[in-house]
Amino acid sequence: MSKEGKHHYIPVFYLKQWAGLDSQICEYKQRYHGILTKRVHPDATGYIHGLNTVPGLPPEEAQYIEHEYLQKLDHKASLALKLLLQLASLRSDDATRTVAWASFLYSLTLRSPESLERMQQHYDSFRAEMAAKRPEDRSFVDEDGNRRPLAIPKSETAAPEFLPTFLSSKLVVRGIARMRWAVKSVDGARHKLLTSDRPIIMTNGLAKPTDHLAIPISPTKLFFATNDERTHDSIVSMPRDLAVEVSNNKVSEQAIKYVYGVDDSQLRFVARRLGRRVPSTPLG
Question: What's the pTM value of the predicted model, to 2 decimals?
Answer without folding.
Answer: 0.86
